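A common beginner's mistake is to predict each chain separately and then try to dock the pieces by hand. The better habit, illustrated here, is to supply every component at once so that their relative placement is modeled jointly.
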Amino acid sequence: MTSESPKKAVILLSGGLDSYTTAAIAQSQGFDCYGLTIGYGQRHNIELDCANKVAARLDLQDHKTIKLDLRLFGGSALTDEIDVPDFEDHSEAEIPVTYVPARNTIMLSLALGWAEVLEAFDIFIGANAVDYSGYPDCRPAFIQAFESLSNLATKAGVEGSKFTIHTPLIDLTKAEIIQKGLDLGVDYSLTHSCYNPDKNGVACGHCDSCILRLKGFEQAGVSDPITYAA
Amino acid sequence: MTSESPKKAVILLSGGLDSYTTAAIAQSQGFDCYGLTIGYGQRHNIELDCANKVAARLDLQDHKTIKLDLRLFGGSALTDEIDVPDFEDHSEAEIPVTYVPARNTIMLSLALGWAEVLEAFDIFIGANAVDYSGYPDCRPAFIQAFESLSNLATKAGVEGSKFTIHTPLIDLTKAEIIQKGLDLGVDYSLTHSCYNPDKNGVACGHCDSCILRLKGFEQAGVSDPITYAA
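With all components supplied together, the output reads:
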């Protein structure tokens, strides 16, 4: 990377804690960052407002939101009439009902499309394989397979460019992610994690995602700046 | 495949000649077919009407159209303010401006999402590596990589199911595709191939896609039932 022209990167930005931290890490590494938010009809649509706030705070080079309605397919508690369960200490072998079929494949594909147009050969995603919910498309083997695919799928790849899929959070605990973000000046009050917020966007405090977040803040020794339902 | 419960397949259906033929082949192989059409903001939006007609004629189990606007990214003559060129006998090493960055990756990802919900482990796409326009994401190596990815990306794959990406046209010439389709009763008057139709949907007759189609019909010894601009 020369100081004259920083490399461009596309960052998948959901409005959650992980993707904001990921974007802050990419910026700290000197990338010019382009944020991509995917509105897929998720139950927690407030994510999209948070993504806009995060993008503005990070002062990204550009931020786009692309909408596609995965409710057409259903099959997940996040996109269908399936209740979001309270946190359960399920084993890693069980994949919960909040899994959205092929979500990260779809999101990375869209990021790849924009990246190729931008001539950005670095894509960042906040996938995490530690304090995660057992999603298959957060595992390192999946990420590596997508990176290989990217170089076969694109004109840029055929012509010799090499895409890299960055997952800077993949081996971190939620507490480590939060600590890393705080060190980089991340303002977690802008973020949203709950799978099942109320009409006003207030987090439920008892779904998998809320519990993992709250435990992370507790272990990091700082308080979570967002509000939870009583 | 038992006679009691045919296997389900998701077919990517564009409204063009290749995908209709692909769907007819899947049906002839005994699959229960679910058509998926992707409206990505393509210049030749008339494709979507044709896809509806084709789906109705094939009497598919279900047909869904999912919309997402790749014009947000641009970078292709099909989605941006770039002129669609007339046919040129370019070498296979040159990838033309009608290439849409990551299009087949995006389409297959969406097909994978729906397939997983349906418990359909067979996905058909009309990719073709012979009379094609040099697109990287029509090559067998790309298709194989996507198939491997599918089994890493999904809950179904992790749990032991095996997705197969079928490309029954991949080694056929356009004339062979047309002959195959006619043998299966395909009605090519319902289809549309032109990259740059006029306002009424009439094919231009001189873009890459029109020229390949016309040559295919000529070599198959039958006349193309659609109308072309004078």
